[in-house]
Specification:
With 496 residues, the chain is α/β, with parallel strands linked by helices. It is built from 16 helices and 13 strands. It folds into two domains: 122-382, 3-Layer(aba) Sandwich (Aspartate Aminotransferase, domain 2), CATH 3.40.640.10; 385-492, Aspartate Aminotransferase, domain 1 (Alpha-Beta Complex), CATH 3.90.1150.170. Strand 7, helix 10 (296-301) and strand 8 (310-313) form a beta-alpha-beta unit. Bound molecules: pyridoxal-5'-phosphate.
Amino acid sequence: MEGSGAHRSGQDLALRDRIRALERAARPLDPGSTRRKRLRSAVIASSESFLRRIESTKAYQDTDDKGIGLLDHPIQKHGIPIETAIDLLEHDVVRPGGAPASGGYLAYIPGGGLYHAAMGDFLAAVTNKYAGLFFTGPGPVRMENLLVRWVADLVGYPASASGHIASGGSIANLVAITTARDAHGLRGADFPAAVVYLTTQAHHSIDKALHIAGLGEVQVRRIAVDAHYRMRPDALARAIASDRSQGLRPWLIIASAGTTDTGAVDPLDAIATIAERERCWFHVDAAYGGFFLLTDHGREVLVGIERSDSAVLDPHKSLFLPYGAGVLVVREAASLLASQCYTGSYMQDALREPAEISPADVSPELTKHFRALRMWLPLILVGTEPFRAALDEKLLLARYFYREVERLGFEVGPSPELSVVTYRWVPPGADLERANRINEAIIEGVRRDGRVFLSSTMIDGRFTLRLVSLHFRTHLRVIDLALRVLREQASAAGEL
Ligand SMILES: *Cc1c(COP(=O)(O)O)cnc(C)c1O
């Protein structure tokens, strides 16, 4: 319509001028190549200086301010230069608290932060490919399904399996539980008689998921554990028999493949036999331990996981990805589809293609981050072998630490099945209360020191220290440093 300007009314022209003025005002949203280069250089410089210092960076930085300076810069009408933003980030965001990208991070369940995954995130954000439906994002959907298939093969599921990459293990557990609910046709009136079986060591995200899934009224049976905090199959079988005799409805068995507290792996094979016999849904929470399946030891310890109905494995734990990735795999795609596939009339163009199952049809998310790229890029670039080697290294580091910390005189928990070690300092003659106080003082001392980051837990009333070797940057020298720090803190705290 250019050229017909002579016939435009003044009103038309005014509208076009206003639109052009807004276009100019919005221009900072789409920087040109020079501005992009300045952004990129500042970001790369900051990330390089971060990585160059990562080995000497404190694994926990105890600061008084705790990043409060961030609040001095509220979001305003006009922006600030990238250099100022990077300064703020480095000082108020990256510095205080834990450093999950550091090999000295041995607390809770350590994270990762593979650089290849960061590159994948960058490309995913720049291209912003849509990953929810095959129709608009055939490539990202094929990539996610390829990765889900790779995880399903690792678990040992048949070709009928499906799943998706969620944001983490909590959400993946929630979808698994919802799927189990629907697969057994549980409706509101059935909830009070339905029974779920797990141990006291199950992750709290399970309780949360039951609540969110509307299952707060189901019966929850905490099955007794053995000396290694693993579910006792005989106790499970007895609990189910007792519930049946009372007219209840055994429904769901949840086993842990690597508990958060102690890294215990429930006897999956024996539990699978009971689940099959009792026609219960069998879910394995392998959020922490799942990718140890890449190792011979892991495959031995996790045997039976292939007989489960669903499993959760967190790539942001044992596959070293940055935070924000949890995989759910379900043995039968049909049960996942039956629970998660919905549509709306505004979706009519996105005809369901039979070529590939779309993540949107097997998960609660519609528009989703192109998460597959951050998992695919590291795997395709380095192959699985370095992952296997790193995981075997973590298993041996845990065994080494277990032996050495006992040599230092600490009382140790069960020998590590995977890579969690529990231990405590008990001076001769100390009663429970005093021992608890001393161990609390030790963990506080370790945190103030900051060179390594350890965490604690309460096991049967005992304040217990934990060390988890899981980070890809955790190596022998880090474990030796942890032993040194513990010796120092124990001798200091022993004087209490
Ligand atoms: C970490 C963890 C979860 C929760 O996963 P998030 O990724 O933190 O949401 C669930 N179960 C176990 C055993 C875990 O270790």
